[in-house]
Amino acid sequence: MGPPDGRAAFGPSFDRSRLDPLTRGLARHFATAGPRRPAFLRRLRALAYAEEFTHHDVLLAHRTPRLGWLHPAVPFDELAQRLVRDVGFTPLQNVAGAPAVAVPAGWDGTLPVGVQLAGRRGDEPTLLELAFELEAAARGWVRRCRRPRLTYPDGGVAELGGSDGVVPEWPSIRYALYVEQPDPDPEPTLDALVTAVATTLMGVDSAGLHDAAEAVLAMMVRHLGVDQSFVRFHDERRRATVLIAEWPPREHVPDPDPLGVVPFADADPVFAAAEHLSKIMIVRPSDAVEYQERVREGAGAPPTSLAVVPLREAGKTTGILGFLQYSDRGWTAEELQALSTIALLIAQMQGRMAAEDRLRHIAHHDELTGLPNRRALMDHLKGVLAAAEPGTRALLFLDVDRLKAMNDFLGHEAGDRFIVEIAARLRDAVDPVDVVARLGGDELVVSVDGPCDEDRAVALAERVQRAISQPIQLGGQSLGRTVSVGIAVMEPAVVSLAQWLRSADQAVLVAKSRGGNNVVVFTAEMEKREQVRVAVEMNLLTAIRDGSLTVAYQPIVDLRTRVPVGVETLVRWNHPTLGPVAPELFVGVAEATNLAGELGDWVLGEACRQFSAWRAELPAGALDGFAVSVNISPVQLIAMDFVATVAAVLDRNGLDGRHLILEVTEHAVVSDDVAARRTLHGLRAMGVAIAIDDFGTGYSSLAQLKAFPVNTLKIDRGFVQDLGHNPDDHAIVRSIIKLAESFGLDLIAEGVESEEAAATLVELGCRVAQGYLFSRPQPADAVRAALLRRAGDYSRGATT
Q1: 3-state class of 391 per DSSP?
Q2: Whole-angstrom Cα distance, residue 234 to residue 316?
Q3: 238-247, 285-294, 444-453, 773-782: range with lowest mean pLDDT
Q4: pLDDT digits (tens, 9 = 90+) for 341-360
Q5: Which of 308, 329, 368, 463 could join 325 via S-S bond, C-beta 3.0 to 4.6 A?
Q6: Which strand (E) or helix (H) includes residue 420?
Q7: 746-749 and 316-325: which strand pairing?
Q8: Burial, 20: exposed, middle or buried (Cβ in 10 Å; 0-12, 13-18, 19+)?
Q9: CA 610, 612, 615 angle in degrees (round to 5)?
Q10: pLDDT tens-digit profile of 715-742?
Q11: Distance (Å, rounded) from C-alpha 25 to C-alpha 639?
């Protein structure tokens, strides 16, 4: 027999004026909605707060589960035990199995703190009496029970039930014991619920999303009396709906979870409709068979009522908020309005988090490739070092070889596309757990996950090289580039972040210095060199400015007479703790730290000052036909004021341009033809001679050689040292000499160390050279002595 209409509990002749305010509110509720467990609980609490009624926890001779729902704060069993233990009441047991107590004989009326005696107020039904009557009417119950009684000190007896001890209908409750205490956790009104949700969601980020979502869902489940609630966000990339949180959490979640990620393409009609849902959707237990089956598989739940509220942001649906009831359920207009407001709050939070995530992604990822950037890499490596796990870890630095040439050929847009493809190949070539980052330009880094020794790191580097070297189609061209890889294998517990990065960077520089397409592992010897390099970098500027540097002069001689015709100025540095520092080291540091210009200007000034001193000390005419050569850096060559600087140095030392030869490399000349041509023409206009140093090792063309105002070609030592023994060198030197002759250029051969090389040069037509065969670099005093001998030779030759 089903429950009758709620109105039948009172009947048309029921006099509602007899009810107290709370009871009248309950009567109105049941007369219109009928008694339902969640609604009964919710409405009772709301009315109790509105009317400022006291929260009741009841001890009765008979009870139903309904009263347990109404008043859960102090269990009936606990209160009964207190009365038995503290006051001496006698425990009773009735046929319904509910706890009851009998008042002891001679009781003085004392009760535990907070427990009081209440009875009927005249003929007005109490809340408890009404609750039992409504329960009985709704369920159609007829119960028989023995009549318990409570005896009071004045001899009165409170009987519960009919006079014959057997009741054919639910008994009226005339007396009760209750505890007076405020509700420890009052349910909010709908407005208060919305405010609580807004407060909870304030400031939530991605890391705290799950916990905040669970807290909000728990609030709504508790207030609305539903069995379960959930929130799902749409994933546009996967075109799926993703479960963010649910309350209460399922005890047993299948693997895979059919409710976790649901692709819209494969979804049942309810989930599919959620993709573009724009208004609240209500599903009843008899609706949506496929959806009901998915819920049964995922949660083991019976057919449910479902309310789905869309999360909408910027005109599109970004997720859903859902409520499940494992029975049929209706929704009031006020409830639906509150749910819409809460959904708006969640959607706003979702949009804010998405914007924050985008900003966070931009801050930690490279815009071109999407790879982690320098900041993200630093954070990752700090974490690796902080963990200090045992074993060694590997860091790979990659530098694409000669990317600039491709950029110059195809343009930077094509170069960017090339870098994107390189980054994608690198990401595919390493393990998914490895971190791949872009530092900028053509520099990429791989942090190998987990312990890694040198052999494994080298194998990975070679795999990366093979992947990257495959041709890439760009602008109708099939282009390939190699990559240099530097590896630093370190123990996290004993290395600093700066040292680890510096070591990998040093290794890749060595790989590139070997011609590129190399894999180099950082070694202890490199570490020593790196320590020296750092010390040089820290002290070089001071050395330039405080006179710690010196110059030496290597004679340039006439091969036929072996008489000096000039000197090349070479800078030297004897460091107080490092000892003699190799020129290629500190000159390289100067170029890398923007000190090359200041160093070059100092050498130029020192060379001209010394030449002026020799001229003052030697007999007149001793330096006729004699010139001093000075190497200038690419930085000086393209400086706007370099011509003026040279003019000022010459003027300060009383020299003119014919006394000075400036040596530039092929690379310096061709790297910026416009600026270089402007500077060289300005120098030639002053009478300064220009020599191309290390000729044959660069990329200058005949057209460029003709365009620049060059006087002399210096044949690189690499072609000269084995001359007389190596036929290839012989052919190259002969070609260079023929080229110089055809352009009317002077020649100087560098690195002559044997008589065979000297004789071969004379035979081929080169008349001037320098090298250890004639003299090592000498201090100024030794050169002065040689110049005196030269002057004496000239004097004797003139007398003769």
Answers
A1: coil
A2: 11
A3: 285-294
A4: 999 999 999 888 888 888 88
A5: 329
A6: helix 412-429
A7: unpaired
A8: middle
A9: 110
A10: 999 899 888 888 888 999 999 999 899 8
A11: 93
Structure tokens at 171: 């008994």
Q: CB within 8 A of 676, min separation 6: which ones?
A: 637, 638, 664, 668, 669, 670, 708
How many Å apart are CA 314 and CA 344, to the nearest integer? Answer: 11
Amino acid in the structure at residue 456: R
Length of the chain: 800
Burial label, 11 (beta-carbon count in 10 A; 0-12, 13-18, 19+)? exposed
Regarding pTM above 0.85, the answer is no
Going by C-alpha positions, the residue among 430, 396, 398, 436 that lies closest to residue 521 is 396
Q: Is the pLDDT of residue 628 over 60?
A: yes
| DSSP letters spanning 64-113 | -HHHHHH--SS-HHHHHHHIIIII-PEEEE-TT--EEEEPPTT--S---T
Distance CA 332, CA 456 (A): 66
- 3-state secondary structure at position 379: helix
- Bridge partners of residue 157, in order along the sequence: 151
The rounded Cα 605 to chain-centroid distance in angstroms is: 51
Measure the CA–CA gap between 252 and 178, rounded to whole angstroms.
Answer: 40
Q: Are 445 and 504 in contact (CB under 8 A)?
A: yes
The token pair at 665 is 């490399």
Distance (Å, whole) CA 67 – CA 79: 14
8 Å CB contact between 791 and 619: yes
Among 296-305, 313-322, 776-785, name the one with the lowest average pLDDT. Answer: 296-305
